[in-house]
Design brief:
Mean pLDDT: 88
Number of strands: 5
Structural class: alpha+beta
Number of helices: 2
Radius of gyration: 17 Å
Helix content: 10-25%
Length: about 90
């Protein structure tokens, strides 16, 4: 299943359930909302789609769900974040 924002189509979560006892997608959707402590407004902007298992490597903010083609696509406006350099630590004696 893929969970995405209705307003932007950005994918926020992907789940591939390979267990023998399957939990339905609505239950996983509800768990996602609860685990992420989303407000009612935030939850209302989300929806999900059930898919056959696929291999995808999602990057938050980079991938969209195209409702018309039913495919994962890269967001053409995505800009890769600038890497954060670690702050040097002064040695202690």
């Amino acid at each position: 299943m893929i969970i995405y924002k209705k307003s932007t189509k950005h994918i926020v979560h992907y789940r591939n359930d390979g267990s023998t006892v399957r939990t339905d997608a609505q239950t996983w959707f509800n768990i996602y909302i609860k685990d992420n402590k989303l407000s009612a407004d935030q939850a209302a902007d989300l929806t999900y789609i059930e898919l056959a298992p696929i291999e995808i490597n999602l990057i938050h903010g980079k991938h969209l769900w195209n409702e018309s083609t039913q495919q994962v696509e890269e967001d053409p406006t995505y800009v890769e974040p600038t890497p954060v350099e670690p702050t040097p630590v002064e040695p202690t004696e």
